[in-house]
Amino acid sequence: MKELNRRDFIKSTTATTASVVTIASGISLTTFAAEPPKESAPVTNEKRWGMLIDVNKLTESNIEDMVNACQEENGWGNEVHSKADQKPSWIKKVKVKDKATGKIDTLPMMCQHCEQPPCVDVCPTNASMKREDGIVLVDRHLCIGCRYCMMACPYGSRSFVHEDLNNQKTHMPRGKGTVEACTLCVHRVDKGGVPACAEAVDSEGVIFGDLYDANSKINQTLKKIQSTQIRADLNLNTGVRYSGI
Known about the structure:
The protein is an alpha/beta fold. The chain has 7 helices and 10 strands. It starts with a strand and ends with a strand. Mean pLDDT is 84; it is low at 9-34.
């Protein structure tokens, strides 16, 4: 877990280098394109999925539960890594400190699912994409491992798969030499469910829902409480919002 100055955290960016892609042997890499499975409702821009995280209602243990749930659901983080900094991290526990007050907050950080995602803008193969409902994904068939998207992401939310992969989840295939990040558990959402991280904690601490639905719990809650976007100055209109920081 990394501790950052709050201002540095809000304004920080991430950078990495490029590499040649190699797809994991024997793995069929399915993609989550503009349309969900046939038994699900069509993806349209009439919905926009989002998440509200209330830091005041989460403990460090809650956040660890969120990380563990994501790992278990999507099958990342179990590989043997030659270097510690190569370990994938779809969601991580981050500490931020307010210089003025000394207050330290611990919060979960994942892909923010921006309305104007920088990762999509810089991708040379269109592997980075945003669905009509706002979920930002990586098409691993198209990803060439250049990692431009990792450099463009202001949140450090993307990981590169360096190692061989084993025992993958059938609903979430991954590929060596490709980039990956939080998908908001799109395979669950398309079937009417919620992301594993949200399910792992009290619904008041993490609220998932349709930001466009005036009657949704997340929409109603955002109208009543103060919330913020990380790096709001970038005008990315993130789908993930925070309260209590």
